Amino acid sequence: MANQAVFQKKVLEQLKETQLTVGQPKVLDYLKDHNGVSQKELALGCRIEAGSLTSILNRMEEKGMIERRIQNGNRRTFHIYLTPKGEELQKCVENAFLVLEEEVFKGISLEDREAFMRIFQDIYKNIMTME
Fold it and tell me: Shortest CA distance to 92 belongs to which of 106, 82, 78, 105?
């Protein structure tokens, strides 16, 4: 968890000018590939507790990054969409991730990077199937 906190801090440092706060980069990045996802699915995909996500989304909506829409007349389920401002900020997030990726893999060969990612994905799969 400490490693994740350090990475999160570095991401926010890269994004200082955008004034994004904790959790928002992750949401923007997830919505890039899952625009229009339900709030419940977004919480699962981002691995953020539902209550925490609600607070994050409220701030993002206030700042014009996302909008919540009711679909199929179901007022209990909101779907989350990036606004043009959110799309612009998502590109900043993506760039920050690329810059950090280059920094953390500095001096490591492409072959070793690929091996690391393959092993890491296997570990992740194992963790996700644990009971």
Answer: 82
